[in-house]
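Can't paste images in this forum, so I'm doing it all in text. The chain is below; anyone willing to post the predicted structure tokens underneath?
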Amino acid sequence: MKVDRYPLEAAKAVNALLTGPIAVLTSAEGEIVLPFRIGINNDIERLLRPGAALSDLHKALRRYTHSAAYLYATAQPDALRHDIVGEPFGAVSDEDRLSARQTFLIVQERRKQRREQRESEKLAQN
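Text version of the structure:
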């Protein structure tokens, strides 16, 4: 699954809180999402821009890592984790891959329900 608007906006929000952009984040629609290596948050936190709130960074990272594109990338059989500069760091564990797949399916179901709700509301207005 390639990047769409949601994870791209989340990546931009993360980078806006840092002293400079990080290569592991997507920067354009259509790019492939790279799963993070375990513990990458510490590396990212060191780049927090002076005056930026750590809680805002955590929210932006959570938004990115809970996007359908990130979960889908993490759930792939050959998924690799990546360091802050975007280099492969190691394979995603079977447990993490399964968890990402289950969460991805939940996210997809919620998207479907929201879409159906919007369509139902549109029909009711007409």
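The beta strands are 80-82, 88-91. The mean pLDDT is 92.
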